[in-house]
Amino acid sequence: MKKFTNISDLKDLNTAVDEAIALKKNPRAHVTLGEGKTVGLLFFNKSLRTRLSTQKAANNLGMHVMVMNFGDEAWNLEYEDGTIMETIRSEHVKEAAKVMSQYCDIICIRAFAGLENKEEDQAEPVLTNFIKYATVPIVNLESATGHPLQALADAITIKEQNTKKRPKVVLSWAPHPKALPHAVANSFIEMMRYQDADFCITNPKGYDLDPEITKGIDIYHDQEEALKDADFVYVKNWCSFEDYGKVNISTREWMMTKEKLGDAKFMHCLPIRRNIVAEDAVLDCDQSLVIEQANNRTYSAQYVLKTLLEN
Amino acid sequence: MKKFTNISDLKDLNTAVDEAIALKKNPRAHVTLGEGKTVGLLFFNKSLRTRLSTQKAANNLGMHVMVMNFGDEAWNLEYEDGTIMETIRSEHVKEAAKVMSQYCDIICIRAFAGLENKEEDQAEPVLTNFIKYATVPIVNLESATGHPLQALADAITIKEQNTKKRPKVVLSWAPHPKALPHAVANSFIEMMRYQDADFCITNPKGYDLDPEITKGIDIYHDQEEALKDADFVYVKNWCSFEDYGKVNISTREWMMTKEKLGDAKFMHCLPIRRNIVAEDAVLDCDQSLVIEQANNRTYSAQYVLKTLLEN
Amino acid sequence: MKKFTNISDLKDLNTAVDEAIALKKNPRAHVTLGEGKTVGLLFFNKSLRTRLSTQKAANNLGMHVMVMNFGDEAWNLEYEDGTIMETIRSEHVKEAAKVMSQYCDIICIRAFAGLENKEEDQAEPVLTNFIKYATVPIVNLESATGHPLQALADAITIKEQNTKKRPKVVLSWAPHPKALPHAVANSFIEMMRYQDADFCITNPKGYDLDPEITKGIDIYHDQEEALKDADFVYVKNWCSFEDYGKVNISTREWMMTKEKLGDAKFMHCLPIRRNIVAEDAVLDCDQSLVIEQANNRTYSAQYVLKTLLEN
Predict the structure, then answer these.
(1) Which of C309, C298, C311 shows the shortest CA–CA distance to C33?
(2) Any bridge partners for residue B219, and if so which?
(3) Which residues lie closer than 8 Å to B219 by C-beta, 6 or more apart?
(4) Mutate to test the interface with A, among B32, B77, B83, B95 (most CBs of A within 10 A)
(5) Residues 104-163 of A with CB under 8 A from C
(6) CB-based burial, C234-261: b 16+ in 10 Å, e otherwise
(7) B68 at interface of A, judged by CB pairs closer than 8 A
(8) Looking at domain A150-293, which CATH architecture does it have?
(9) What is the C-alpha separation between C53 and A38, in angstroms, rounded?
(10) d(C-alpha A143, C-alpha A112), whole Å
(11) Which of B94, B95, B100 lies closest to A52 in CB terms?
(12) Matching CATH topology for A7-147+296-310 and A150-293?
């Protein structure tokens, strides 16, 4: 593994999950591996779980952590080639990525979708350019189109909680007052392709995800039908892909309720808006795995950092 | 000790002071105690002494430190139960506190009073909810109504500087252009209840603190009378409790001067507005203990973190 | 060495360069030197290289690092003596510097020129007052008038790259859409005084730097003439010193091009605006040393921190 920006960068998902579970049992077993090594965490957006769990993971490996909030603390970056740089973007990613590669052994980056320009978001200017110009491994802490550390944590959680030979897993769209990116849903779907599971997606008409990503997966526009006999229900809002970046707020009926959930386990990446995405009764019942998913973020990140350090 | 959010959480103030003084003599004596342990410092407000002294204290104990400026770096938190979360508050404290408890062995929080709603401030929504939902010990880095790490540092300072059997200590109100919270004064008063001292408060009419907190303590509205034969004068502004959050800026006569101070030691928690709260001559004379109070913040925090780690 | 705020604080530039190059070969050779020691990095302005390279340098020496973004995280500082502090500046540098000296073994400060008041910038209120009131060594991470850590890194880079007995080094002004400080240019000039080199400056009329700093150095207003037979060309924008803080944006002809550069090595402190300060062809060719200059920032900082720790 030379980088971790997609689930497909993992040599093998099942091995990764098993090794992450081993790290969870003994988090400090490799505390000398990262000695004298530095990980840089670059945030272009807010973060709670990602920020703290990645720091924790790095500390567990004995690494130094340098956190940088790019917007506030450093210069605005230019990503275009050949520009006459006369705007507020005072540093080119070419220099920034090369320079940071000299201070950091691994660079982790969070840069959300802007949701204004589909082509630009799909092109992943921040991540792509850091991969191109950095000379050290890049880790995706949630980019415009993917959040693979979350998906790996989700795979760990499913592995820990699953009791069936072939569980039924449903990704169920939820309402939200703000337009949200597709990253979490995309990576969850990518990850589910490696699982022996009965997997489907349910969302309202007009909210189908990128057809390249959902190809071959059943999409139901009838939530009730999709949820039937589910073992795991992963709830998540995303804005329209077709009518890019738009959000329809009059669809409260898609909120996850205890009744709809039935006996299934409830999953969400957090942060979650209570009584909009899911009702309190869902989040406060024993079937909710959200806190454990967040816990597994540490071991998801630790597996990735450890693997990159070993290469 | 399971948490430290009030002076009353200390098993015994005198023991705490003595142990803190021992730590000050040998700050790195317990540098392996915190190995592999992490303290999270959550700031909802600005900080200089608290931010740096708590980091220093944690480092002295060999702990990892993760600092998070909540407002800028993470999501706005919701504290109400049962809300339909459609405002900018996109994460509930229930999730945030539980999640962070998985990354941190101790969580320290600064969340000032808003000074707009007395009932809300008295209810301490941030601190109370973190205590309720977190599964690790909580430390108060100044909440709406208390600043016990400062009060413990003040107790250390008085112990180091006192030469009398039963010193006279006066808490003296000072003017200030901005409305300031009651936290420092409240905790100082709480701490003084454990001291063998002649303690009184002096403030203008209309500036009496919460009567529940000052119960049984002499309050003088005549500053000169209160300051007579004082050994320690703790100067601090606070806004009106009665007329909650209001500030009367036309009371320059309450500023501490060298003349009023006499031979007493001068104390203040900092930051201090020179020539408004106290004149330069007070801050620049040998009787001022403010720099030493700030120094003792490190050992106050270190005692608390050490005690929580040992439990 | 008691502080490092100017190149002249170095006992000997050549020794510093040689020792920095030795640290570069074996960065972790002194990893126990800083054990239990803390460096505070105070930022009043943005930073990428300085922030990360100084952290890296401190980590290489085994020090703890505490980063503080003063504007956002702490109180606004007052620098004037005797003021009645009723503005937004709620803490005096006297207290701040003394207090921080108790938490940090070394304090490093970045505080750019405001470029509105020449006398104020020349007086260096932040740096001067921290030097005056702090009780620990101060390191300049770029002040209003100097950036000596950059100049030391530049000296390292020249030493590594130079093949001539007495190279010709040219400091060449470049256009820029924003008014920029003189700090980098000033320190580069100060550093060049210790070099056995043929050194000159070239800038448009009206952009001569502080005559006290350039005294005795040839200044050409004809860039072509100055660049003839150059071995190293250090390109940098600065605003007018005479017409203080003003910028003339209609001087695109001063941009560095591959043609003008000839066979010389290209240097710049970064961040750089491509195709304004220098064209892409300059930055992307093998003659560009900018990435290596940034790399050397780590060893420049590490030499300074190590020397201060040893004293």
Answers:
(1) C309
(2) B201
(3) B200, B201, B202, B203, B208
(4) B95
(5) 104
(6) bbbbbbbbeebbebeeebeebbbebebb
(7) yes
(8) 3-Layer(aba) Sandwich (3.40)
(9) 11
(10) 5
(11) B100
(12) yes
Instruction: Assign domain C7-147+297-310 one CATH number from 3.40.50.10540, 3.40.250.10, 3.40.50.1370, 3.40.50.620.
Output: 3.40.50.1370
Query: Could you tell me the residue ranges of all domains in chain C?
Result: 7-147+297-310, 150-293
| Binary contact (B95, A272; C-beta < 8 A) | yes
| Closest listed residue to residue B222, CA positions, set B176, B172, B155 | B172
Q: CA-CA distances (angstroms) from residue B221 to A130, A278, B173, B218, C223?
A: 65, 55, 10, 10, 74
Question: Which chain B residues contact residue C95 at CB under 8 A?
Answer: 270-272, 283, 290-291, 294
Q: Does the pLDDT value for residue C54 go beyond 90?
A: yes
What is the DSSP secondary structure assignment for residue B199, as one 8-state letter? E
Looking at domain B149-293, its CATH class is alpha beta
Q: What would you report as the CA-atom Rg of chain B, rounded to the nearest whole angstrom? A: 19
SS3 state at B78: strand
- B7-147+294-310: which CATH architecture? 3-Layer(aba) Sandwich (3.40)
Using N-to-C axis directions, what is the helix angle for B290-310 and B148-161, rounded to 10°?
120
Q: Which amino acid is residue C76, in one-letter code? A: N
Give the separation between CA B37 and CA B33, rounded to whole angstroms.
Answer: 9
Torsion of CA B275, B279, B284, B290, to 10 degrees: -80
Confirm if C61 and C305 have CB atoms less than 8 A apart: yes
Predicted pLDDT of residue B152: 98
DSSP string, C224-267: HHHHTT-SEEEEE----TTTTT------GGGSB-HHHHTTSEEE
Helices (H), chain B: 13-25, 49-60, 70-73, 93-103, 118-123, 125-133, 148-161, 183-192, 211-214, 223-227, 258-261, 280-283, 290-310
State the maximum Cα–Cα separation within chain C, in Å, rounded to a whole number. Answer: 59
Confidence (pLDDT) at C51 = 97
CA proximity to B97, closest of B143, B66, B135? B135
Contact A91 C294 (CB under 8 A): no
Q: Which residue from C48, C93, C37, C86 is spatially nearest to C70, judged by alpha carbons?
A: C93
Give one word for A255, left, alpha or beta, with left for phi > 0 and alpha for psi -120 to 50.
beta
The domain defined by A7-147+296-310 folds into Rossmann fold (3.40.50)
Token pair belonging to A187: 């990576």
Pairing of strands B106-110, B38-43: parallel
Q: Are C273 and A90 an interchain contact pair (Cβ–Cβ within 8 Å)?
A: yes
Per-residue confidence of chain B (311 residues) as pLDDT tens digits?
A: 999 999 999 999 999 999 999 999 999 999 999 999 999 999 999 999 999 999 999 999 999 999 999 988 999 999 999 999 999 999 999 999 999 999 999 999 999 999 999 999 999 999 999 999 999 999 999 999 999 999 999 999 999 999 999 999 999 999 999 999 999 999 999 999 999 999 999 999 999 999 999 999 999 999 999 999 999 999 999 999 999 999 876 678 999 999 999 999 999 999 999 999 999 999 999 999 999 999 999 999 999 999 999 98
* Minimum CA–CA partner of B180 in chain C: C90
pLDDT at residue A250 greater than cutoff 90: no
What is d(CA C79, CA C88) in angstroms, rounded to the nearest whole number? 13
Structure tokens belonging to residue A9: 């960068």
In the DSSP assignment, the letter for residue B275 is: T
> What tokens were used for A5?
């920006």
What is the predicted ipTM?
Answer: 0.96
Q: What is the three-class DSSP state of B192?
A: helix
Say how far apart CA C165 and CA A217 lie, in whole Å.
70
In chain A, the percentage of residues whose pLDDT exceeds 70 is 99
